[in-house]
Queue: 3 jobs
Job 1
Amino acid sequence: MNGMKDWFLLDPNMTFLNHGSFGACSKPVFENYQEWQRILENQPVQFMTDHVYSALNDSRIALCDFVGCDEDELIFFPNSTTAVTNVLYNLDLKSGDEVLMSNHEYGALVRAWTMYGKKMNVKIIQQEIPIPLTTEEKFIADFWKGVTLQTKVIFLSQITSSTALIFPIEKIIKMAKKRHILTIIDGAHIPAHMPLNIHELGCDFFTGACHKWLCGPKGSSFLFVKKEHQGWIKPLVVSWGKNGDDPTPSEFLQDFNWQVTRDMSAFLTMPTAIDFYQKEIRSNQGTCRKIIQDAHSEFQAVLNTEPISTGGTWLGQMAAQPLPDQTPPDLKEKLWNDYQIEIPLFEWNNQRYIRISIQVYNTQKDVDLLMSALRSLI
Ligand SMILES: Cc1ncc(COP(=O)(O)O)c(C=O)c1O
């Protein structure tokens, strides 16, 4: 994996262990992104009224193929929060209905749901999934305890943010379907992190970020909407839609493709991002996972805290570990100022955590530096 760093724009003087937050764009994809911006500015009118639609089409088809859905079931969004927000304000829930999520969900989206819940008098329930996570059966049983006759929607991450855990969601989606509960999956971390086939997963809605593990430009994300729901999912910003220039026969795509004047260059890079992933990233991911499994064990030895999972299939290319009580409050600043290590610390469930991400540009040396810094600082 040595030399992979050269493919990225990251400052070579820092140790970057935070791919999970905002990703890092590879050089070929960034060049493609800028190329689209130049094409746009070369003839803005022709591009925005004509050329952009075929380019969007090509990019969407490549992405649909990559994530396992039909080419008219996916729309681009700049990020997962806008994608989920667009779904929740289209829901037709009644006062007293319930939305069930875990207590590991992404903070911004918990806020979004909570605000919606207050406005609509809908109960937002954050079901506790006790840690450490051990077996799939226990995880499902713990989550399903939150389901009641009022549960109308399940909102669940496939990989969680602060706790960095892979949730086995397949059976929960099947169980929800039997009870006519809508499933909205937050897969922000999934594309190019885990194999993804949305049709096989069977959920109603799925959002994924392409600027994280697919290494696309910031602002490239998507929302999958199952065909049967496309009639009632409308954009929050209503624009030209079927009265515009978009030649597609799908009213759903027309509604979402043109959402006022904006730079769609990030959306157009998907064929290049997928190609880069297939050629340069995929074959190195096994090494990344091995480094994470080892780091998960080493965290326990260095920090002397209990792990939040048994490792193994709960982990992909990230791992989070509770920090001990004696951790200095300015640990993050010290890691950056003294060691040039970029790594996030989170508070979750009244406990501080450190979360490591390993992407193909990282090596074991980066983890060694982190562990030796933690030994000195804590
Ligand atoms: C689990 C999860 N969901 C959603 C998001 C999306 O955040 P944003 O909409 O700001 O890109 C993130 C970002 O880190 C995340 O970790």
Job 2
Amino acid sequence: MQLDLSRIGQNKCQFEWLLKPSEVLQADNSYHIVRPVDLKIELYKDKKRIHLIGQVLTELELPCSRCLEPYRMPIDVGFDHQYLPVEEDLEVSEAEVEEEELEISYYKEALIDINALLHEQFCLALPMKPLCIDNCRGLCVNCGANLNTSPCSCETDWEDPRLEPLKNLLF
Ligand SMILES: [Zn+2]
Ligand SMILES: [Zn+2]
């Protein structure tokens, strides 16, 4: 989805969208959007500089890093983002950008890519190590059973053969 700046006359306006997951283009498969994306944006226009302040609410499904089972994670994040047109890039001094310590993105042909904005927000919200539950027991390294659902029979008997020489050293 694109935000068409050429159709925005005022210097300040508000938008609210409820996007179906299928309407949001996904850049990769690290997550799936499983609930309509509730997106609110306040737009401030200062000549060609666009300032977006917004909130995004939805739910993502992603695989647990230990047991690989998909689980759902609610998303409720705010963002504050500035945009400049690509061709004006060189006219903005680095000092000016640094001073304000704001993240600057660029738009082309008066279009702001809302999909890219959403993808960035989701990636920022995703944990480094996604876990379905804090104490997820993961998969048995021997038989691959999901130890959250049932303990497997090899869990207690099985010993890592790589530890065998170490054991002989110890006793
Ligand atoms: Zn898990
Ligand atoms: Zn097992």
Job 3
Amino acid sequence: MKLTYLGTAAAEGWPAVFCNCEYCKKAKATRGKNIRTRSQALINENLLIDFPMDSFLHMVNNKLDLSAVEYVFFTHSHLDHCSPVDLFFRAEGVYAHDLTKKDLTLFGNLKVAERLENIVKAYKDEPFGIKFSEVKPYNPVICGSYKVTPLRAYHSSGEDALVYIIEEGGKTLLYLHDTGFPFDEVFDYLVRNRIKADFVSYDCTYVALPSGGGHMGLDSCQVLRDKFLALGIIDENTINCINHFSHNGKLIHDELVPVAEELGFLTAYDGMVIEI
Ligand SMILES: [Zn+2]
Ligand SMILES: [Zn+2]
Ligand SMILES: [Zn+2]
């Protein structure tokens, strides 16, 4: 399974759109991996996690064929994860030609369904196009070669925010964005279903600051990693990677890498490719 991190920032991006803080100025001056766009990841060539406002930029920067994507799993309805306007331009004829795959299925909770309503309506009379399928915590979905299992995230009170287990080709990925320290029911599910993760992507929005609420930072990522180890959900061969960073967390990518490495974590950057 191949994972490509397309966007690795929290909601406002890094540099944040209107921000003049020291850490945004530093990112603008140094560029490279210190520039982070909004959260999105691609599995192989055909499964996307989330569709933020930077999807167009991700397509350009990574030379992607987005028409090859067959499945989009939405984590929750926050704007930096669910910004569906560009899905209108998948309509074949005027906006898009020679689609690699005719059909695209969007998976998400009911709040995501509300945000996608106009898109799905626009495609409803097409013989192919875009469909929506509701997903619920702990109800696995089989699509193509994937088994995708939503887990309840500790993130947003107005909806069932989700994080995902993605299994394919004998490999298992835990994608934990956005969430604070997971609920006990998540650990129970992982243990009961004997999930052994080859790769874990940890929410690290707070970076070096003390974390709490619906996001994590380096402090809680370590506690979570150790708990996964103790429960046998990961082992010494598992790759642990931090992702989804806010400029308020202070350390730009170049500064964060050695700190995270010392603690046993890889640090995601836009365009990072991992073979799992
Ligand atoms: Zn987010
Ligand atoms: Zn800033
Ligand atoms: Zn969020």
